[in-house]
Amino acid sequence: MAAQWRYRGRNVGEEEIAFLRQFIAEHPALSRWALSRQLCEVWQWKQANGALCDALCRGLLLLLERGGEIALPAVRGHFPKGLDQRPEPLVPDNRPVHGPLCELGALEFQQVRRTLQEPLFNSLLEQYHYLGYQQPVGEHLKYLVYARGQAIACLAWCSAPRHLAGRDRFIGWSAEARKRNLRLLAYNTRFLILPWVQVPHLASHILGRMAKVVPLDWQKMYAHPVYWLETFIDPARFKGTCYRAANWQHLGSTTGRGHNARTKRATQPVKELFGLPLIRNFRQLLGE
To answer: Which segments of the chain have a pLDDT < 50?
Structure first.
């Protein structure tokens, strides 16, 4: 039976594996980094803004190597800020922030990916979010929210999961439309109000503002729009109150099987799914 692998929605069969073996053999001087970038050019594996999907390509190559399908060049160096490295802990401005929302002043939303503020964002999530920090792969944005020059919240957004039954039923798109338009969705992977900030209604206010900020920055960064936002809530910890208050809709529960599950049994905690359409005709646009 021919080998068949699947990685982030891409099917890799015997023909592709044979091509990879030949390509690697014909380019023995290339590092893994250079190899992945040249493969992206050959496969035209690019984002809408023209950036190469080299991190995704390296993930696929590692998967195939671990499965015994290909042999990659030896690792030539270790990078201290790689995907598996924990962010360096930084000391934040932790002055207490209390009082009503109206007294907080104007909030500033800064997209900090690829900026000097990104290490602070990573460090805050690692230190104060119960899930810690995880380096996203693919399209993603990172935000710090400031009040009077002090960081008070962090939000991370990335590409949406491929299969979510509750979301897919609500949108009503076909499998082909989902495959083609999944990039038009953004997933809120982290939302952190820093522990020294105690301001009623702040979380829902931030989510309301994010619904206008994220589409603009996504278009600027990746040259395509987003029409839908979504997230998961752990019901053992939260009720999703701030999302409900910001008009997000509860779309049901996950199965607990996780993505790429090979069994129908639950292996992960069941989460509650929330979604927010950003435009009235989102079903028409996503179903095209």
So the answer is: 1, 79-84
